[in-house]
Amino acid sequence: MTTRMLIDGGGTDPGGRPASATCDPATGKVLEQVLEPTAEDVDAAVRAANRAYWDDVAEVFGRRCSASWTASEVARVMAAARRARQESAR
Q1: Is the overall model pTM greater than 0.85, yes or no?
Q2: Per-residue pLDDT for 24 more than 80?
Q3: 70 within a domain of the structure (yes/no)
Q4: Which of 7, 9, 88, 90 would you call most buried, defined as having the most Cβ atoms within 10 angstroms of its Cβ?
């Protein structure tokens, strides 16, 4: 059986693409065949992950964030939100 990749909530169509075997290291038995991603699969996965990340950040910060923020700005704001949550849980 070939496992489909899950990208943006949907499975990919194997469409005759090559697959790699995933084996049990103790027995060598093939557990699953995993599709090898195409460049388009990787691009779609990165776009979906980026959307999910910014949707999550926007939800946490009430849409005050921007995709133009640097990683350190996002990390600083997320750390402040985490501290605020911890303090409110006390």
Answers
A1: no
A2: yes
A3: no
A4: 7
